[in-house]
Design goal:
The structure holds 2 protein chains of 2 kinds. By secondary structure, chain A is α+β, with helices and mostly antiparallel strands. Chain A contains 2 helices and 6 strands. Chain B is mostly helical. The chains are: A alpha+beta, B mainly alpha.
Chain lengths: ~110, ~475
């Protein structure tokens, strides 16, 4: 099992969700996050005061999948979230030791 | 037509005869039955907001309904400026953790000043005394009832006049708190304001508006300084603005200024507050005519023009110099326009108001954006930049733009001054106002600093004044 963590532009959520559904992914967790990479923040000016806002709002999508489903899910996210401009986000893939469905007690690939 | 005239003349003749007979019959007694002419003259005085026909008791008892109704509405409008206008304007500009502290300060000042005003405040400002301060004749509103006080307004109940003027006394110290927002203890605010009213506001308001005041050029023929201030450029805006500068210097800068973000937590609240201020300001400016008369109409128009022009000017200046017209820029221009036209509104023409609007959009803008950055004081919400600079600017411009064409009262005692040396008298009034505000505020600020203390400690300031001073949060979003 692998966990996919994808940081994407907030307005791409609907596209990414649909693309993942088409790729057979059945669930996901979404969190509003802030951060920065190469895309810098912006400047806000209130009368005489200037503030640089470094952290840009993004969404983090978390999905856990059986190993054989990871490749197609990543392709779906990349295709849906890409605008070609700086700040499109990143995808991380992490190994997962165990998964368990609380209702039934199922473990492993059956649980995700 | 002819018939009517005959009727009227018969009526008048009877009236005169009755008066004469009555006069003979009651010779030696104080009260005479008024003649029809006198009664008509009394009515005309009501329509023209003139003095009552003196020597006889007229048939109109108490106030004139139209003028009185207008002043009651205006009193409510001026309160609306503080609660919630100013509270939201300032409240939106602070960080989320301090929004309630601003609201609490505005509410607390409204209550505190009302009690002071009832006790001695009204009397010290509006009863006759010296040229600096009034006496105690009206202490505890003694004798202040629904009958008008002809020294100020022949047709408005004195109790209404008193409450109307009280609303000015409430908003003035509330303006000061913008400069020290987010970093002053609640008890310190209340103690400072209580003492400040006695040291600065009551004397200044008496000097400028008291019938025997030192700087009341329009109504006091004996005034040493022939200055004019229609609605409070010196009394309200300069006094609060200059005091705010002194207080924010003594209190010191907010923790983390220049390092952490101190952006406004809600420009939406700020815009709502600004709009309420603009609406309420009609009670402040047009109401200062103390009657629903032509001078009030003119002040209503000049207030509107100056404010709109200043808002556009500020935003366009921002657009040109910094690339974007901001909501805060449009709001700041509105307030700067309102402040700057305040001393002038009842004395200038519509075109004069447009000129004031342009200056009001430019000069306070540079005070807030450039001057503050160069000098480095932490006037958190720009009370000095808008109210002191705008109030001073407006008081100077009033000296040049006031004209008896807009306000015939300027011809009564100031015929020789208006259009000639009025600006010199305005400068003298400005000097006295700044001296009183700066000296009074410095003395009181140090007194508060060494007794109850001005600032919360570092931990409290970091946590936010809402939780620390009031045990509440502005927003619980779950």
């Amino acid at each position: 099992m692998k966990k996919i963590e994808a940081i994407i532009k907030p307005f791409k959520l609907e596209d990414v969700k649909d693309a993942l559904a088409n790729a057979g992914v059945q669930g996901m967790t979404v969190t509003e996050v802030k951060g920065f990479g190469r895309q810098k923040g912006h400047t806000e000016i209130y009368r005489g005061s200037e503030y640089t806002v470094d952290f840009v709002p993004k969404l983090k999508i978390e999905i856990v999948l059986p190993d054989n489903a990871v490749e197609s899910a990543i392709e779906a996210i990349v295709a849906a979230a890409r605008t070609g401009k700086i700040g499109d986000g990143k995808i991380f893939v992490l190994p997962v030791e165990q998964a368990l469905r609380i209702r039934t007690g199922e473990c492993g690939d059956h649980a995700v | 037509m002819r018939k009517m005239r005959t009727k009227l003349s018969v009526f008048l003749k009877i009236g005169v005869m009755v008066t004469l007979l009555g006069g003979f019959a009651l010779a030696g007694e104080a009260l005479k039955e008024p003649s029809l002419e006198q009664r008509v003259a009394d009515l005309e005085a009501y329509f023209n907001n003139g003095s009552r026909v003196a020597e006889v008791a007229g048939k109109i008892s108490g106030p004139g309904p139209g003028h009185n109704a207008w002043l009651m509405v205006c009193a409510a409008l001026v309160l609306f400026m503080t609660l919630p206008g100013l509270a939201l304007f300032y409240g939106g500009l602070v960080r989320r953790k301090n929004v309630l502290s601003v609201l609490a300060q505005c509410l607390g000042i409204a209550g505190l000043v009302t009690i002071l005003w009832w006790g001695v405040g009204y009397s010290l400002v509006f009863s006759s005394g010296g040229s600096i301060l009034g006496g105690l004749e009206f202490a505890f509103l003694n004798g202040v009832d629904s009958a008008p006080n002809p020294g100020y307004s022949a047709w408005v109940s004195q109790n209404v006049f008193s409450i109307y003027q009280m609303m000015f006394a409430i908003i003035t110290p509330a303006l000061i708190i913008g400069a020290v927002a987010e970093r002053i203890k609640y008890p310190a605010v209340l103690m400072f304001v209580a003492l400040w009213m006695f040291a600065v506001y009551f004397p200044l308001a008496h000097m400028v508006w008291g019938a025997d005041g030192l700087m009341n050029g329009v109504w006091n023929p004996q005034s040493r300084i022939k200055a004019i201030d229609f609605a409070g450029g010196t009394v309200v805006h300069m006094s609060s603005g200059w005091s705010a500068l002194v207080l924010c210097l003594i209190v010191g800068k907010r923790l983390g200024l220049g390092k952490t973000t101190m952006a406004p937590h809600s420009m939406v609240l700020c815009m709502i507050g600004t709009s309420i201020l603009w609406i309420g300001w009609y009670g402040f400016n047009a109401g200062s005519a103390l009657a629903a008369d032509g001078i009030a109409s003119n002040a209503f128009v000049t207030t509107t023009l100056a404010t709109a022009v200043a808002s556009v000017t500020w935003a366009v200046t921002e657009w040109i110099t910094r690339g974007k017209p901001s909501v805060l820029g449009l709001c700041s221009g509105v307030v700067a326009g309102l402040v700057t036209v305040t001393p002038a509104c009842g004395f200038i023409t519509a075109n004069g108001a447009v000129a004031i609007g342009i200056f009001a959009g430019l000069i306070p803008f540079f005070a807030c954006v450039k001057l503050k950055a160069v000098l480095g004081y932490d006037d958190a919400l720009d009370t000095f930049g808008v109210h002191a600079v705008g109030g001073t600017l407006g008081s100077i411009l009033t000296g040049f733009l006031a004209t008896a064409k807009a306000n015939p009262n300027l011809a009564t005692n100031l015929g020789e001054v208006v259009g000639r040396t009025l600006w010199v008298h305005q400068l003298a009034a400005i000097g006295i106002t700044i001296a009183l505000a700066v000296a009074g505020s410095a003395a009181i600020a140090f007194l508060v600093k060494f007794t109850v203390g001005l600032r919360p400690n570092v931990e409290e300031e970091t946590l936010g004044l809402d939780v620390v001073d009031h045990g509440e949060q502005g927003y619980i979003l779950e």
